[in-house]
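# nightly structure sweep
# worker-07 picked up a monomer target from the shared queue
# config: single-sequence mode, recycle default, output format = structure tokens
# input follows
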Amino acid sequence: MKSQRILLFSLIVFVFSGCGAPAVQESADGPEVRDVSMRLQWFPQFQFAGYIVAEQKGYYDEGGLNVTIVPGGPDLVSLPLVATGRDTFGSTGADTVLIAREQDLDVVALATWFQASPVGFMVHSDSGIAGPEDFAGRTVGMFYGDNVETEYRALLAATGVDRATINEIPGDFSLAPFLERRADVWPVYATDQPNTARREGAEVELILARDYGVHLLGDVLFTTAAFAERNPNTVQAFVDATVRGWQDALNNPDEAIELILEFNPELDREQLAFEAAETIKLVRYGIGERCPGFNDRGAWESEAGLLQSLGILQAAPDLDAAVRNEPVADYYERAGVPCEAP
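# output follows
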């Protein structure tokens, strides 16, 4: 669900350094590699609707691909698994891609699905906390070293709040510390966890960094630069099918929910409906309204600048190398849809 900690990269890269890249088929007519895997950030849910719908409706098959979608989690971190060749494609946060490249992991973003970050900070409605200026003296849960902390630091900087005045405790994937009021502020994915809290009887509100001028991107599709260079047809076929999957999910979320339930029967339909409504807002944000998945250069530049200002990046990244917009741009050019901002 969350972008996983960069601190895990060196350990997992060492563990999987013996894994090789998939065998390449020499074909000028179709994908160079047909058998590929897609590593999610979390378990399959509406957050990954584009991939699941594309798989369930046969779009990958039509593109000549045999795609295996595999779940992620705390012990299955997408970026190092893709960087070392265990998986072909992956989903992660935009910030994670830029940080990884500064650590000499040559990964590239292919499509930006969440044009606005899904991270939010949840408070009880009766807490008296209306914004970050009220965090002082309160207890805030925190996931250190990932996109949650990035957004938290940016939010405090934007509002002039001194972090030293806040009592922080380590985050937990359970909402229990928040529901039991051991924490006043809890970082969440706005797409699903607020609904979970409400179903547990809590009345909650969300504080969103973008309401304070902090605009960060969310989930992106990525692979390695080496794979993209050697296998452009495979990358194009995968992007084409996934964009189609997201377009279907955005236009017909009820159908997408049924397909996701077929793919992962353990999910709850009502929770998926909430997640769908919130996810669609993030995918259709900004340039995503016209062109889901498009890499908005201005948004990426803004994110890179913010990461530098926070000291998370030491130098300006080479965005031409980090973000490959050609596959998504090519899809929309063939469809006759203008995506560049006027």
